[in-house]
Design brief:
single chain, about 400 residues, alpha/beta, Aspartate Aminotransferase, domain 1, Aspartate Aminotransferase, domain 2, 2 domains, five-stranded mixed β-sheet, binds pyridoxal-5'-phosphate, transferase, alanine-glyoxylate transaminase activity
């Protein structure tokens, strides 16, 4: 017997859940691509994304995934041979650094390991030591989706300023955009990038690079950028097709517009607060699994709460147990957990790792149901774990919510 019936629940860290409202907005005939609704929607999407990023800067959009945004950020600001510093706190930091290497940049890395955030003091010291200002850019991820480390990108930006270093500051917020706070301009970020399939609740297919004035200056100094990736026509398109260097991703734009409407109606502060509460529910459960008399090798990858992502949580198990647990949840209960990625470069074995994504269109019954299913899987498979996970998750939720209903249920 299997109980994998009913609506499957996926807690992968992207693509995240698709709201019915987003799906319904996409379910329609091909639109007029010369004038009218689609053209208007594209402008409001630009406006709203810039507001959510906290920037007055320019936005280039791509029919592409996050990997393309990594590349777009680099090819528009740097030339082969330029030296950059990549801060690494897991596989996604390594991935961006490798992209930079593959583009012919001279990449230095500061590796902070796989279970803690990048240290702003160490960054500041490293930049001060670069007296000749050879480093042209500093690259970091906000949330590393493999390790679930959350970097304090505000403090890292302050470190650049404290060191008086002119390197461009580039941040990948793909896993954290509309999950964790972002104030691009206030935090001194020159290039911010994200994609639509995580906190933005839209099927994978559009990614974004935001560019501040210093980044735009760097673009203008380059002789040539590959025409598809070039920021300039995309920033301020004179003709509609220049938004996407060709046909627009029509239906994705309708879906994204609906997702942005949902975010704006809920209010971004409420969206961020919801992510923070649901993350604390996951942490409460996971800390209980890791502690107490029954505990075995199960534990959270990131020990310090302040350094944990509010969008994804990485758990470590004994060898093989993460893979067994994922198999059991999928086959027996219809729950898809996030695969364990090798946490750093050259680290084998994602089978002792699993991840719970808690980003985007998610509420307590979805998340607590997932946690309860994991709890059942641990018991069914005889994987040692501490008691009380579900009680603590429920108490965390109860503490965060008002005792009387607010009457704020979203009509959907
Ligand atoms: C998901 C993710 C990426 C990669 O995005 P793709 O759309 O899979 O190319 C890059 N960086 C971070 C932090 C991510 O979470």
């Amino acid at each position: 017997m299997s109980l994998a019936f009913g609506r499957p629940i996926r807690v992968m860290p992207g693509p995240s859940h698709l709201p019915d409202r987003v799906l319904n907005a996409m379910h329609r005939e091909a639109p007029n691509i010369y004038e009218g609704e689609l053209v208007g929607i594209t402008d409001t999407i630009r406006r709203d994304l810039c507001a959510l990023a906290g920037t007055d800067g320019a936005l280039a959009m791509y029919i592409a995934n996050g990997h393309a945004a990594w590349e777009a950020a680099l090819v528009n600001t740097l030339a082969p041979g330029d030296r950059v510093l990549a801060l690494v706190t897991g596989r996604f930091g390594h991935g961006w650094a490798q992209t930079a290497r593959d583009l012919g940049l001279d990449v230095a890395t500061m590796d902070f390991g796989t279970d803690r955030a990048a240290d702003p003091a160490r960054l500041e010291a490293r930049l001060r030591a670069d007296r000749g200002h050879a480093l042209r850019a500093v690259l970091t991820v906000q949330t590393d989706t493999a390790t679930s480390v959350n970097n304090d990108v505000e403090a890292l930006g302050a470190a650049l300023r404290a060191a008086g270093h002119p390197a461009l500051y580039m941040v990948d917020s793909i896993a954290s955009f509309c999950c964790a706070p972002m104030r691009m301009d206030a935090w001194g970020i020159d290039v911010l990038l994200t994609a639509c399939q995580k906190g933005l609740m839209t099927p994978p297919g559009i990614s974004f690079t935001f560019a501040g004035p210093r980044a735009r200056q760097a673009r203008r100094r380059l002789q040539r950028v590959s025409p598809y990736f070039d920021w300039l026509p995309r920033f301020d398109p004179q003709l509609y097709y220049q938004n996407f260097h060709g046909t627009a991703p029509t239906h994705h734009l309708f879906g994204l517009r609906a997702a942005l409407d949902m975010i704006l109606e809920e209010g971004i502060d409420n969206v961020l607060a919801r992510h923070a509460v649901l993350a604390r529910c996951v942490w409460a459960a996971a800390e209980a699994w890791a502690g107490g008399a029954g505990a075995g090798g199960l534990r959270l990858n990131v020990a310090a709460r302040a350094q944990r992502s509010v969008a994804v949580t990485t758990l470590l198990t004994g060898p093989g147990d993460g893979a067994r647990l994922r198999r059991w949840c999928e086959d027996e209960a219809g729950l898809t957990l996030g695969a364990g990625l090798p946490l750093g470069a050259g680290m084998a074995h994602g089978d002792g790792v699993f991840r719970i994504g808690h980003m985007g269109h998610l509420n307590p019954p979805m998340l607590l149901g997932a946690l309860a299913t994991v709890d059942a899987g641990l018991k069914a498979l005889g994987i040692a774990h501490g008691d009380g996970a579900l009680r603590l998750a429920a108490e965390t939720l109860a503490d965060a919510l008002p005792a009387a209903g607010t009457g704020a249920a979203a009509a959907e």
